Amino acid sequence: MDAGTGRNERSIRRAVVTGGAGFLGSHLCTELRRREVEVVCLDNFLTGNAGNIEHLIGDPWFRLVQCDVTDYVHVPGDVDLVLHFASPASPIDYLKLPIQTLKVGSIGTLHALGLAKEKGARFVLASTSEVYGDPQVHPQPEDYWGHVNPVGPRGVYDEAKRFAEAMTVAYRGQHGVDTAIARIFNTFGPRMRPYDGRAIPTFIRQALAGEPLTVAGDGSQTRSVCYVSDLVRGILALAWDGHTGPMNIGNPHELSVLQIAQDVVAATGSDSPIEFIDRPVDDPMVRRPDTSLAGRVLDWSPEVSWAEGLERTVAWFRTAVDEDNLETAARHS
Ligand code: NAD
After folding, report:
1. Among 40, 52, 85, which residue has the most ligand 1 atoms within 8 Å of its CB, making it the best to mutate?
2. CATH code where residue 156 lies
3. Does 8 reside within a domain?
4. At CA 116, angle to CA 104 and CA 17, rounded to 5?
5. What is the pLDDT of residues 122-141, one digit of tens each?
6. Ligand 1 center to residue 60 CA distance, Å?
7. Given 3-state DSSP classes, what are the helix, strand and coil percentages for the chain, each rounded to the nearest 5?
8. Nearest-atom index, ligand 1, CA of 161
9. How far is the centre of ligand 1, averaged over its atoms, from the C-alpha of 93 (Å)?
10. What range(s) does the NAD-dependent epimerase/dehydratase domain occupy (predicted)?
């Protein structure tokens, strides 16, 4: 915590969430409204959709502005917090949208930082564990510089986020903007798109449809998965705090991809078999956050177990994923 900036003492009355109609952004908008913070959501629906925020439409303290943050960002009135979450995030999306991904990480971040500078607002960048690439240090602490292939297929996302981090630090140093960098590790939960290509929604969709679960490689590569409510609590704790980051936010509970698939089969009661397919290029072998900084500074740690989070996510997929939003999802896939 920065000297003089007591946790939870910061006054945040109005927040801008870029990418607010996406998976994480929509949960952040919902929680901010629950805390009685006015929210302006900026989104161009590139990978998000209006269904994610439809429960907030009609709320007089929630405003949706459909815009591309790489064009310009203009928000009239006071703003106390900018959460910059706009960016394709799943490998399927950023492999299909490489230039949009690079633009939103660079120009979009420049514009979001410009807004925070103009308004004197706190700024939180949604960075990623991908900045560590295929890591050679395990688990990954914030002072590990990473092992990234800039010209591999994932480079568009990884380097966009690394650039965004550098720009965030520059705005703090040169313009005195009150910035923070959150390095988010794999997060899952309701509102993930069934065709977004990430392992958990793919496995749940396949299991519920009675199709084989497609595990990349032999499934021994690991992921550490965080339930969305824990992630949101961590991001907002960082927003209310004065810490600059970079700070890992994620669940250190590490699972092999094969274990994730087996647990999804069990949680859905499916009799789907498991099928092994080729591993994507530059797919990281291991991933696990060192979250001691978040624990020490924010007194934050994940509370929702993998089993509980999986159960809630499966329940959501069973009830909320109807044919309509499968079609919407498929259009983005
Ligand atoms: P998402 O694709 O569901 O949400 C991203 C949102 O940004 C979408 O609503 C999309 O329409 C919007 N967007 C994209 N480009 C835009 C632009 N130019 N202008 C306006 N809006 C734009 O992804 P998500 O999983 O919610 O991820 C949100 C953020 O968190 C991303 O920045 C991502 O890099 C980061 N992150 C997510 C995870 C995760 O596990 N979900 C992990 C690490 C980092």
Report:
1. 85
2. 3.40.50.720
3. no
4. 55
5. 999 999 999 999 889 989 99
6. 25
7. 40, 20, 40
8. 34
9. 10
10. 16-250
